[in-house]
Amino acid sequence: CGVFGIYAPGQDVARLAYYGLFALQHRGQESAGIAVANGRHIAVHKGMGLVAEVFNRDNLRALHGDVAIGHVRYSTTGASSLVNAQPLVFRYLRGMVAIAHNGNLTNASELRRELGASGSIFQSSTDSEIIVNLIARHSQEPVEAALLHCQEELRGAYSLVVMTEEQLIGVRDPHGVRPLCLGRMDGAWILASESCALDTLGADFVRDLEPGEIVIIDSRGVRSLQGPRVAHRAHCIFEYVYFARPDSILDGETVNLVRRELGRNLAREYRVAADAVIPVPDSGIAAAAGYAEVAGLPFVEGLMKNRYVGRTFIQPTQEMRDLGVRLKLNPIKPILKDKRVIIIDDSLVRGTTSRRIVAMLRQAGVREVHLLVASPPVLHPCYYGIDTSARGELIAARYPLEDIRRHVDADSLHYLSLEGLFRSVQRGMEDFCAACFTGSYPIPIPSPEEATKYS
Ligand code: 5GP
Ligand code: SF4
Ligand code: MG
């Protein structure tokens, strides 16, 4: 998911939040929402689909106030439906509060049980509602103090933007798994999952929130509370591999540069005689450029992607697919025919994408196709907010390399090593979560019976 918050009295906060969310669209395409506070009340509009589908001039104009938060949803837990769309808005002892969450709690079932036993009721199946109920449990205190208590009880990954009737608050979990940064712009303060949202608004990047930090923005300015912190941060390395936008800088590392370095390291580890290096658009572009540079091979855009295939697009029927309807990707045949090509993608999860692409390239007449993956095999499920496992079986966890190569029908298949992955980032490996690759989980994961909901 992507979260955004803006504190800008006197400005059109709903429209600014709309642009911010638009820049974070890659973090979730399932639903979008914006809540706005005007000092007395919080109004919200949310819907299923893309930011540009959910909002229009009229519904944005109806949201006026001084503070706004927004959310784009990518579903990990909880079904895809409007009740699970965020921000969640609720009324408690001290007024109204809105919240938007990126991440995934690992003790959600426990907390839900505990809260249920003491009388809480739930409307949705999201983790965010658990956080809402925890805040309400500490309603004798100001929200920021309640959030400090919540940090003691919540386990897992959470970057939150919270809004009262007159405050904007940002919270990052003690490991800093999901990103969250602070920016400023002509007297306005902004919180965003990624710095690309600040760039979009022409705001200045101020800093990333520290793991465990709570930032409070109101008429008194900006202040910060430091909640629990752990010995080692655990920034999600998959944000750099796949999830984040390449122009973002997360915790000091530029995503595009990391991806390019992944490709360079792949070339240092594995070479194969070929005529061209072809990226799988868009996720493989930076790595393919890095690979081509080190290998001294031409970088060729051999696959064209239609960027307008949204979620609400009517998917082709099997009959259409058999006809060869290529809505999303189309090979550029004249530059592929009789060539030995290397195709590079950022990751291989189920192998479905690669298998389709290899078949497409063979139909286009390539002589050889070598599939190189700019990250190590995904062997373990993520419990911290990326749904690699929910997307079906992890092929690398079940089959040896040669079987996968045969399944995707490539002439050769090679993954980047773990060392190559860690060499591609500036911080030491102890500062990252890479559990989906290594199996070493920085935060305790749910018990097997609770974990079944992830598989
Ligand atoms: P596969 O087809 O092997 O399951 O997935 C690999 C492809 O999916 C890659 O092109 C990669 O860019 C993309 N991918 C990796 N992680 C995710 C994810 O969490 N969600 C979605 N939608 N795509 C992903
Ligand atoms: Fe990121 Fe993988 Fe860790 Fe999940 S398990 S937080 S995807 S690195
Ligand atoms: Mg991809």
UniProtKB/TrEMBL annotation:
GO molecular function terms attached to this record: 4 iron, 4 sulfur cluster binding; amidophosphoribosyltransferase activity; magnesium ion binding
Annotated catalysed reactions: 5-phospho-beta-D-ribosylamine + L-glutamate + diphosphate = 5-phospho-alpha-D-ribose 1-diphosphate + L-glutamine + H2O
Record text on cofactor binding: Binds 1 Mg(2+) ion per subunit.
Binding, Mg(2+): 283, 345-346
Keyword Protease among record annotations: no
This protein's record includes keyword Transcription: no
EC number: 2.4.2.14
A Pfam family assignment: Pribosyltran
Cross-referenced InterPro entries: GATase_2_dom (IPR017932), Ntn_hydrolases_N (IPR029055), PRTase-like (IPR029057), PRTase_dom (IPR000836), PurF (IPR005854), PurF_N (IPR035584), Rhodanese-like_dom (IPR001763)
Pathway listed: Purine metabolism; IMP biosynthesis via de novo pathway; N(1)-(5-phospho-D-ribosyl)glycinamide from 5-phospho-alpha-D-ribose 1-diphosphate: step 1/2
Protein name: Amidophosphoribosyltransferase
